[in-house]
Amino acid sequence: MDKVIKYQEAILDYLNTYAKEMYASDPSGIDTQIVADREGHHYELVRVGWSGKKYVHYCPLHFDIKNSKVWIQINNTEEMVGDELVKRGVPKEDIVLGFHPEEMRKYTGFATA
Description:
By secondary structure, this protein is of the alpha+beta class. Helices cover 25% and strands 35% of the residues. It contains two helices and five strands, in the order αββββαβ. The two termini are 23 Å apart.
């Protein structure tokens, strides 16, 4: 299997699992959406809708695949997302914590770029 397709499947499996575990029984009425641009290699979990009189548009998770590596662009959760991807077959050396400054990535245990 092509590496990018394998990483795409790992990301989507994680997003679907996380969405079901965290939001399946959410009574708020706010929609949970998984946005997947398979051609451009962008993947997000988005929460959108109305909570009372307040409009909510929130992105807890955002991934990209760039240069055959998974970039975690944002992780607004308490989950160790990189470790979850490793469990799904993505090697640590192919995961970049993009939300960390480049000079700090060498301390993360994941790829630097």
